[in-house]
Amino acid sequence: MPKFDIKRITFLYFVFFFFLFNFTPIPNYVYIFAAIAYLIIPIYGSLNIRLNLYVKSVSRFEDRQDNVVLTFNLNENVSNIADLLDTLKECNIQAIFFCTGNFLINNRKIAERINSEGHIIGNHSMSYSKKFGFYSASKLIGNLKQTEQLIYEITKNKTKYFRPPFGVTNPSVKKAVLKLDYSVIGWRFRFSDKRLDSIKFLERIHKKIKNGDIIIIEFKSETDWKNICKFVKKQNKL
Description:
3-stranded parallel β-sheet; alpha/beta
């Protein structure tokens, strides 16, 4: 998706309504509706990472034309990671794991296994806090640096990937990302709907998916993991 420019949107709003106000009689409710719509745009853009309103997110790796990329978010509430790693190893798939700092602290051995088996560890902030969207830029920078240090202790490399919790972006996230030189990783397909099993999910995406596309998978059953991993293995011709 193209990156939205909030300044340009604001300018066009004012120009549009300037001409309407001066040359066209319109009822007051139109102004009220426009004001509400203008307030909603930043909120919706903040909650939808794919709109690229504040930061440009990556939903497809252009330099990985022969691969579909699986990604997982690991926070302090996630379990059964060992089973997932077994499945990925069985299918010969390397994935990207976005880990919170608290997950790394509480699951050091699992994190070391993730790294040793060739997967990438990305930054997912220190915790999966619902207050994340209200952090100041300075607090967010400190938060990400803490997680970055924990990742470095395991991988001995500085991670370049960041995925914000809940996919939330805003001006503070933008400042932090620019300061720390991160690539913000979004997704093109998301498997998270509890009402949708993996077979139906794959039926929906198999004609749309392209090499390099990023898939995010929420943690469900081992059967779902295996179905999706087998699909990716076939797609990547592993």
